[in-house]
Amino acid sequence: MRRMGDMSGTHKELVCRVRRELLRAGFSLVDGDESGAPSMRVVQVPAGAMVCWTPLGGSAELTGPLDRSGQNTQAAVFTAVRAVLASQGHNVMVTNGTFDLIVLPPPQSS
Length: 110
Hints:
Elements: H1 7-24, E1 39-45, E2 48-54, H2 60-63, H3 68-87, E3 91-94, E4 101-104
Antiparallel strand pairs: 1-2, 2-4, 3-4
């Protein structure tokens, strides 16, 4: 059983679990904070784990409005990721603006 203040370990475990499940589903992931590279990554955030995706063309592509095909591609990728994670029992939220996914840790049992 984890103490209430020991969320860091729980979040690290969650990041590892999310990475493992996405890799098993066929997604290609990079490690760490290579935010400018076209890639998908899972990083630890205060709320749990965040799944970020930078499309081919890098982060510069995201500074302007996405064209219709870019929006459709982004929506398809995140719909697929969300479906995989939800099927594994995760509670997944979408961030405003960036459309990154936040995977919340499971509720703590008392």
